Structures are given as structure tokens and as C-alpha cells.
TrEMBL record:
Lineage, broadest ranks: Bacteria, Pseudomonadati, Bacteroidota, Bacteroidia, Bacteroidales
Subcellular location: Cell envelope
Transmembrane domains' residue ranges: none
PANTHER family assigned: THIOL:DISULFIDE INTERCHANGE PROTEIN DSBE
Single GO biological process annotation from the record: cytochrome complex assembly
Protein name (record): Thioredoxin domain-containing protein
Length: 222
């Protein structure tokens, strides 16, 4: 009986370990499986012009000088909807740190698209779409080699791609890794103290009170 219990326990442990390993490998291999055709880091991000739901033109090149996250998705895509809370969290964290977010949808139904990003999920960053069939009529997927959604790009202020991935956790890690490069600290500036009578009075006071050597007199304050 003890031998049977031991054998069963061992088999269960092996099965659980194999399941966990498979799940880990699946997570680790998502880019290897679905992002192999995406544009590589260092590539110049192709410019594009796409429209918002109310007809406003959005041009990538107008974001020069900012980091840009391109988020490719669709309202009919379950994995995309699953990632929306995480993308909202990234937007809330980085929107004030010189990072712009652009959602690029492959929806064809305008009403469904707007209901999803605005009414249901409040995706408050810029949203654009061709409102055409993905891979059949759209051009943005060919421009950015999008074979799978959700897919994301991170672009630097000079317009070069930093990261292309289908895993939002990798995007999050990259943004956090970059830290001060995204939002550099304010430069330190030194302010001279005020002196009664203004700067001229201060200079005259220093000239009267400071003692200079012969060599230093050549550059003494005037």
C-alpha cells in the first residue's frame, strides 16, 4: 500500500512539474512563436497617418521627441481585451513621463470599436483604425509586420524601434528599465543670493573686502 501511495505521489509530482514547465515555456516562447516577423530594434519606425473615430488625422512623425507605444489590438480579440487593464496601468504610470500611447485597432465595425475603447474600458489614450479587414484590406499590419494581436512597439524620440513584442509584461519591463532615460531629472540650477543694493553693490563689496595676490589681481572682480 505504501509503495502504491509513493508511486502515485511521484507520478503526480512529475505531472505537475511538467505542466508548470509547459506553462512557463509557453509564456517565454510567445515572442519566438508570434513576433518573429516584427520589425527589429534599431529599425526606423515607418511613418503613418490614421484617423480617430471622429475623423482626426494622427501622424506618427508628429510625436517626434517623445517615446511612443503602439498598441495593436481589436475589440473582437479575447487576448487583446485581457491585456487592456495592464495597458491602462502602463498608460496611467507613464503618460506624464514623455511617453505617448497610440492604440491601433483592426476593427471593421466602428460602433463596436468605440463602445469597447470608450464606453466599456475607458482607454483614454489616442485610438485610431482603418476600419478595414485585417490582412486583407489594411496597410498598417504590412507596414509593421503584425501577424498576431495583441502586439506592441516601443519607439524612441528619434523614431527608432526599441522593442517589438506580443507580451505586455516585456513592454512594462522595458519602460521600467529605462527609468530616467524616459523622464530625466530636472537640471540643477544655482540661484545667486540677493544682496541689498543689487548685484552692483555686491560686486563693490567683494572688491573692497577680498584680498588678492598679484596674479589674482589680473582677474579680480570689477
Amino acid at each position: 500500500m505504501k509503495k502504491l501511495i509513493l508511486t502515485t505521489t511521484l507520478a503526480l509530482a512529475i505531472a505537475l512539474g511538467a505542466t508548470a514547465q509547459t506553462a512557463t515555456n509557453t509564456t517565454q516562447d510567445l515572442d519566438a512563436r508570434y513576433a518573429t516577423n516584427m520589425l527589429k530594434p534599431g529599425t526606423k519606425a515607418p511613418d503613418f497617418t490614421l484617423k480617430t473615430h471622429d475623423g482626426k488625422d494622427i501622424k506618427l512623425n508628429s510625436y517626434a521627441g517623445k517615446y511612443v507605444v503602439l498598441d495593436f489590438w481589436a475589440s473582437w480579440c479575447p487576448d487583446c481585451r485581457k491585456d487592456i487593464p495592464a495597458m491602462k496601468a502602463l498608460y496611467d504610470e507613464f503618460r506624464d513621463q514623455n511617453v505617448a500611447f497610440i492604440g491601433i485597432s483592426f476593427d471593421t465595425d466602428k460602433d463596436a470599436w468605440v463602445r469597447t475603447f470608450w464606453d466599456k474600458y475607458q482607454m483614454n489614450w489616442t485610438q485610431v483604425s482603418e476600419l478595414k479587414k485585417w490582412k486583407k484590406e489594411t496597410f498598417i499590419d504590412r507596414l509593421y509586420h503584425i501577424d498576431w494581436i495583441p502586439a506592441m512597439y516601443l519607439i524612441d524620440p528619434s523614431g527608432k524601434i526599441i522593442l517589438g513584442t506580443v507580451e505586455i509584461e516585456k513592454l512594462k519591463a522595458k519602460l521600467e528599465e529605462m527609468g530616467n532615460r524616459i523622464n530625466p531629472p530636472e537640471p540643477f540650477t544655482m540661484t545667486m543670493p540677493e544682496y541689498p543694493g543689487g548685484q552692483q553693490a555686491m560686486m563693490e563689496y567683494l572688491a573692497r573686502t577680498l584680498t588678492f595676490t598679484t596674479n589674482q589681481k589680473k582677474c579680480r572682480l570689477k
